Amino acid sequence: MSNPSANLEDRLVIVTGASSGVGLWATKALLNFGCRVVMATRDTTKAQIAAAALGLAAKKLIHLRLELSDLDCVRQFVDSFRALEQPLNALVINAAVYKPLLKQPEWSPQGFELTMATNHLGHFLLTRLLLQDLEKSNSSNPRVITLGTVTANSSELGGKIPIPAPADLGDLEGFELGFKAPIAMASGKAFKPGKAYKDSKLCNMITSLELHRRYHNSMGICFSSLYPGCVADSPLFRHSFPAFQRIFPWFQKNITGGYVSQELAGSRVAEVVCSSSFAASGVHWSWGNRQKKDRQQFKQELSDKISNPVMAERVWELSSKLVGLS
Known about the structure:
Elements: E1 12-16, H1 21-32, E2 36-41, H2 44-53, E3 61-65, H3 71-83, E4 90-93, H4 114-135, E5 143-147, H5 173-176, H6 193-219, E6 222-227, H7 242-256, H8 262-274, E7 283-286, E8 298-299, H9 304-307, H10 309-323
Parallel strand pairs: 1-2, 1-4, 2-3, 4-5, 5-6, 6-7
Antiparallel strand pairs: 7-8
Helix pairs in contact: 1-8, 3-4, 4-6, 4-10, 6-10
């Protein structure tokens, strides 16, 4: 792990989905950098147990409940965080739900399809509400870091995989019509659970760039995203077929060479949060689809679906309307 850009003893970082997988290991790496971490999780007891199992210093951790699929809970989380009266230095958009075996969509408390509600809309609202806190940061380089995925970037091979379908928001008809049942896809087309995940991550990556366009210069916040590599044994895949959960890690380790451990992925997230090497805004960082020893980061080209500012503005406006922001 590279050295951080400065003394980070007072830096406070919120990590969503920090009770397992990449989020948990990112928390560990952030603590190693000297940061304090707010573990924003659905189950704070589970987060405390997971942190204790890794031997994480409890005094450096703050546990706050966050159910991203429930917009009311997102607002309650922000209120709870502000009650701490602590400066916020970075926000890590990590939590995600992936349920590829669903036959019918599930719905959030506000009536939105659950995958998009959790992965995109909840994070969109959370970020918008915390911008003023980040602007008041005691850090010279506050950051919002978004976990992206190769499957949402059609400029890469992984983003072209046709099963169930590549990430594509269409003309945003589903968002335009309010995204309530029976509408379960941003495009307004038939529900495909695997594609719902890809589409939600596409929205995450679009939002990261749009945040950069709107606020980097005026607020001084660094907005970037990353793909840390294929974390094939991530708890993200716990709702997949058991055979897939066994075969996929083996395939990535032995055939594609794309496998990245949860620990390595977490350390890469922490570096993007803390290191001066990742201070650029409006960038998507990657280590590539083939992993080698001492692999270095690079700025990954993004597809037009992600980088098109006209589409980004529409995603922003429609998402704002859905979560109740102007």
